[in-house]
Amino acid sequence: MSHAPVSAAPAWTDHAAWVLVLPALLAWQAWMTLGLFGCRDEPRRLLDDRPVLSGRHPLHQYHGLLGARSLLRRGGLSCYDPAFHAGYPKTPVFDGGSRPAELALAAAGGGWNPAAYKAALAATVAVVPLLLWLTGRGVGLTRGSPI
Questions:
Q1: Which residue from 75, 112, 115, 136 puts its CA 20 to 30 A from 5's CA?
Q2: Residue at 27 is within a domain
């Protein structure tokens, strides 16, 4: 004798209104990301040629430029720094913080491009809620699961 599985009544977490929560959260995160770069009043500033000058971003962007040029021109992960007359390997051990800058600048052609670096940083920060949601769904959590 075979019994059909009993389906539970839909929970409040399965309500269609939850579809609005994720886009709202993404919009709020994008707004907060613009605030990080000081360009809520003028979002076009995110894509201008002014570099990020706070914290270690100038160093990461400079090392990212060296690494991206070396990768695109020679296909190698070691580079020469003409400003300091030094050569060094570009590894995560040496300067892991410059990897996002390297990837962004390599994707933009390997030249000095602060807009590419800022756009990559902003995209990385803005996509965090989506990645958390996808991770939660991937491990089997529902929209309203308690943590």
A1: 136
A2: no
Domain hosting residue 131, numbered range: 54-137
User: DSSP characters for 10-32?
Assistant: PPGGG-TTHHHHHHHHHHHHHHH
Question: 119 has which bridge partners?
Answer: none
147 assigned to some structural domain: no
Q: What is the pLDDT of residues 83-127, one digit of tens each?
A: 888 888 877 667 788 888 999 999 999 999 999 999 999 998 888
Query: Which of 27, 43, 24 minimizes the C-alpha distance to 119?
Result: 43
- Is 34 inside a domain boundary? no
Q: How many domains does the chain have?
A: 1
Percent of the chain scored above 90 by pLDDT?
21
- Is there a contact between 145 and 42 (Cβ–Cβ < 8 Å)? no
Q: pTM for the whole thing?
A: 0.75
